[in-house]
Amino acid sequence: MAEYQTLKLNSDFRRTYGRGKSAAGPALVTYALRTKNGSVRVGITTGKKLGNAVERNRCRRIIRAAYRQIKDECSGSWDIVFVARHKTVALKSTDVEKAMHAQLKALGVVKLFSEEK
Protein backbone atom coordinates (compact mmCIF):
# COMPACT_ATOMS: atom_id res chain seq x y z
CA MET A 1 0.00 0.00 0.00
CA ALA A 2 2.77 2.44 0.90
CA GLU A 3 5.01 3.52 -1.94
CA TYR A 4 8.07 3.59 0.30
CA GLN A 5 8.94 2.39 3.78
CA THR A 6 8.59 4.78 6.68
CA LEU A 7 10.55 5.24 9.86
CA LYS A 8 8.32 4.65 12.85
CA LEU A 9 10.53 3.91 15.84
CA ASN A 10 11.99 6.68 17.97
CA SER A 11 15.28 4.77 18.05
CA ASP A 12 15.51 4.91 14.23
CA PHE A 13 14.92 8.67 14.25
CA ARG A 14 17.50 9.20 17.02
CA ARG A 15 20.09 7.05 15.24
CA THR A 16 19.59 9.04 12.03
CA TYR A 17 19.91 12.35 13.90
CA GLY A 18 23.00 11.22 15.80
CA ARG A 19 25.02 9.33 13.20
CA GLY A 20 23.66 10.72 9.94
CA LYS A 21 24.77 13.65 7.83
CA SER A 22 22.55 16.70 7.62
CA ALA A 23 21.75 19.49 5.19
CA ALA A 24 19.66 22.49 6.18
CA GLY A 25 17.77 25.15 4.31
CA PRO A 26 15.07 27.69 5.08
CA ALA A 27 12.27 25.27 4.18
CA LEU A 28 13.59 21.90 5.31
CA VAL A 29 16.30 20.07 7.23
CA THR A 30 17.33 16.67 5.89
CA TYR A 31 19.18 13.97 7.83
CA ALA A 32 20.47 10.92 5.95
CA LEU A 33 22.15 7.77 7.26
CA ARG A 34 23.42 4.95 5.04
CA THR A 35 22.07 1.58 6.20
CA LYS A 36 22.31 -2.08 5.26
CA ASN A 37 18.60 -2.94 5.14
CA GLY A 38 18.41 -2.66 1.34
CA SER A 39 15.77 0.03 1.01
CA VAL A 40 15.12 3.71 1.54
CA ARG A 41 13.09 4.50 4.66
CA VAL A 42 11.69 7.98 5.22
CA GLY A 43 10.53 9.78 8.35
CA ILE A 44 8.92 13.22 8.62
CA THR A 45 9.02 15.41 11.70
CA THR A 46 6.90 18.50 12.31
CA GLY A 47 7.27 20.26 15.63
CA LYS A 48 4.57 22.12 17.51
CA LYS A 49 6.30 25.44 16.81
CA LEU A 50 5.01 25.21 13.23
CA GLY A 51 1.42 25.81 14.26
CA ASN A 52 -1.73 23.89 15.00
CA ALA A 53 -2.47 20.33 13.86
CA VAL A 54 -3.91 21.47 10.53
CA GLU A 55 -0.71 23.30 9.60
CA ARG A 56 1.54 20.46 10.78
CA ASN A 57 -0.45 17.92 8.77
CA ARG A 58 -0.27 20.18 5.71
CA CYS A 59 3.52 20.32 6.10
CA ARG A 60 3.68 16.53 6.23
CA ARG A 61 1.51 16.23 3.12
CA ILE A 62 3.68 18.73 1.25
CA ILE A 63 6.89 16.92 2.21
CA ARG A 64 5.39 13.53 1.24
CA ALA A 65 4.25 14.88 -2.14
CA ALA A 66 7.68 16.38 -2.80
CA TYR A 67 9.45 13.13 -1.88
CA ARG A 68 7.14 11.10 -4.16
CA GLN A 69 8.38 13.15 -7.12
CA ILE A 70 12.06 12.34 -6.50
CA LYS A 71 11.95 8.95 -4.78
CA ASP A 72 12.98 7.10 -7.94
CA GLU A 73 16.26 9.04 -8.04
CA CYS A 74 17.29 7.86 -4.57
CA SER A 75 19.82 5.09 -4.87
CA GLY A 76 21.19 2.77 -2.24
CA SER A 77 20.01 1.98 1.23
CA TRP A 78 19.24 5.02 3.42
CA ASP A 79 17.28 6.20 6.41
CA ILE A 80 16.14 9.76 5.69
CA VAL A 81 14.43 12.15 8.10
CA PHE A 82 12.88 15.40 6.87
CA VAL A 83 12.27 18.08 9.49
CA ALA A 84 9.80 20.80 8.51
CA ARG A 85 10.72 24.39 9.25
CA HIS A 86 8.46 27.38 9.80
CA LYS A 87 8.73 28.40 6.13
CA THR A 88 7.36 25.03 4.99
CA VAL A 89 3.85 26.06 6.05
CA ALA A 90 3.64 28.70 3.29
CA LEU A 91 5.35 26.75 0.48
CA LYS A 92 4.01 24.47 -2.24
CA SER A 93 5.28 20.95 -2.83
CA THR A 94 7.20 22.01 -5.96
CA ASP A 95 9.20 24.53 -3.92
CA VAL A 96 9.90 21.95 -1.22
CA GLU A 97 10.85 19.42 -3.93
CA LYS A 98 13.58 21.72 -5.28
CA ALA A 99 15.06 22.24 -1.80
CA MET A 100 14.76 18.53 -1.00
CA HIS A 101 16.46 17.49 -4.25
CA ALA A 102 19.37 19.87 -3.63
CA GLN A 103 19.82 18.61 -0.06
CA LEU A 104 19.63 14.93 -1.02
CA LYS A 105 22.16 15.57 -3.79
CA ALA A 106 24.51 17.26 -1.31
CA LEU A 107 24.19 14.29 1.06
CA GLY A 108 24.91 11.77 -1.69
CA VAL A 109 21.51 10.09 -1.65
CA VAL A 110 20.65 11.26 -5.18
CA LYS A 111 23.27 10.49 -7.79
CA LEU A 112 24.20 13.08 -10.41
CA PHE A 113 22.70 11.40 -13.51
CA SER A 114 21.68 14.34 -15.66
CA GLU A 115 24.67 16.55 -14.88
CA GLU A 116 27.24 14.06 -16.11
CA LYS A 117 25.92 14.16 -19.69
SSE arrangement, N to C: EHEEEHEH
Tell me the strand order in the biggest sheet.
1-4-5-3-2
Structural class: alpha/beta
The number of domains is 1
**Which architecture would the CATH scheme give at its second level?**
2-Layer Sandwich
Gyration radius (Cα, Å) is 14 Å
CATH topology: Ribosomal Protein S5, domain 2
Characterize the largest beta sheet: strand count, sense, and whether it forms a barrel. Answer: 5 strands, mixed
Mean pLDDT, as a whole number?
A: 89
Number of strands: 5
Termini, distance in Å? 35 Å
Apparent shape: globular
Concise synopsis of the structure shown:
With 117 residues, the chain is of the alpha/beta class.
Q: What can you see in these coordinates?
A:
- The chain has 117 residues and is an alpha/beta fold.
- The chain has a single domain, classed as Ribosomal Protein S5, domain 2.
- It contains three helices and five strands; from the N terminus they run E-H-E-E-E-H-E-H.
- It has helices at residues 10-19, 53-70, 93-107; strands spanning 5-6, 21-24, 28-34, 41-45, 78-84.
- Strands 1-4-5-3-2 form a five-stranded mixed β-sheet, sandwiched between helices.
- Strand 2 (21-24) and strand 3 form a beta hairpin.
- Helix 2 (53-70) packs across helix 3 (93-107).
- The chain is globular.
- The N and C termini lie far apart (35 Å).
- The relative contact order is 0.24.
